[in-house]
């Protein structure tokens, strides 16, 4: 058996390739390549296997000599753990290969485009060659798999004898008709496009998307011209910037050693207001203040131009010197070169100012439908008070404000809270307010102040968290909050929020305080045509009829 180690401190949601890529970028030339890497799902560690003890010991020493990596070596207590994980990985790879083979056989008669362009198109929009009806069918199958997985994990955690009827028979969960996308909005729909600045396969400076693999040493950044979901205006701006960069004396940023200057271009746009917001990210540590000023002036001259029906609303220059893909930039490191730090969008006839660093749904017409689905759920339950949790810039609350008496939002990010307050004023809303706090710190007092009484179906809590869901203490705070009997949980990655849903739905016991919820219905919203991703809206109601015998 080849020597192996357990590496602790790995990001919980990272995958094998992401871990390997991060280690390569952080350790640079000193990196020792393992013969095998296995990252178990949802675990903060990974297994590494080396060709011999010497390679293993060198890697261990390298980790110990770099405490800034915040990684440490753990013990492999179970000798069979690595083999089991490897067997699971090989099985998954075989399944993926079979699916690719089936896809190729099914679509072998399609016109073949150039390899690199096809690779970029498939990487950014892997289903663009599949009929739209088949895309929806595939996504509905994935949603059904999520529900099945929810059932299995629920029973594993609590036992079959304590499982409610809707878990034992998931047909009791209503799977609503999918919210599909109209034909004219299925391509080139993204309202936010982020382009990497690096070198293409010809070793020329390029502004576009990553293609290939760092592991196979064939990675490059290729122009976005064939990307099926990127809008023409964003491609035009990327090509314009690429022409400028190819004559610049400054090199693209090297994510492994920190050299170079140019990092990324971001283009945000609205087809309804015809506004553009452009952000450029650089590493200004490698240039002088005089050079920084000169670059700023050149960028203003470059981008203050005519974009046809679109108008430039803002131009920003951001700084980040972090290795890897991390582009975190503070307000102090962001300079407004022209105009504003936001652009305006219209969603369900509401005006929304979206800041350069704020989250927004990437498909505006489908966002209308997403929020309308939430409104319809509230109408059906005669909701009069709406609790908008993890509210961001307050968009959901604003869009439902015409239908609901009182909107109260909770958001921990101070900048987002300021944006929400400005958006309330922009729409002359008197029934919306936001609290800047962690949800778990204030939700019980907030619900009490709203005076929602059990059985009157007045209060709806809406949770639209980041991709990975929320922490357990947030879910516990929502679950144990009196007055919250209805929850809408919006997720852009349903498999990743299964734990959140289970925690909400487990029967009341000594460990699980308060009656659990039941999953009543689920709606798929196709926010990402031409890809395998989708948004899901889970509607849950408090289940007062089920009390666990574990109490």
% residues in beta strands = 15-25%
Main sheet? 8 strands, mixed
Strand tally is 21
Helix content: 25-40%
Principal-axis shape equals globular
Oligomerization status of the protein chains: single chain
Cα-based radius of gyration, to the nearest Å? 25 Å
Classification by helices and strands = alpha/beta
Mean pLDDT: 88
Strand order of the largest sheet: 5-20-21-19-18-15-16-17
Low-confidence stretches: 109-113
- Termini separation (Å)? 48 Å
Per DSSP, the total helix count is: 14
Structural descriptors:
alpha/beta, seven-stranded mixed beta sheet, 21 strands, 33% helix, globular
Write a structural description:
The protein has helices at 16-27, 53-64, 81-106, 115-124, 132-158, 165-168, 232-245, 289-303, 364-380, 395-400, 414-426, 439-450, 472-479, 498-505, and strands at 4-8, 36-38, 45-49, 72-74, 174-175, 192-199, 205-211, 220-222, 262-269, 275-282, 311-319, 334-339, 342-347, 350-355, 385-389, 406-411, 432-436, 459-463, 486-491, 517-525, 535-542. The strands form four sheets. It has an eight-stranded mixed β-sheet with strand order 5-20-21-19-18-15-16-17, with helices on both faces. Helix 5 packs across helix 14 and helix 12 (439-450) packs parallel to helix 13 (472-479). Residues 109-113 have low confidence and may be disordered. It contains 14 helices and 21 strands. 33% of the residues lie in helices and 22% in strands. Strand 15, helix 10 and strand 16 form a beta-alpha-beta unit. The protein is an alpha/beta fold and 551 residues long. It starts with a strand and ends in a 9-residue tail after the last strand.
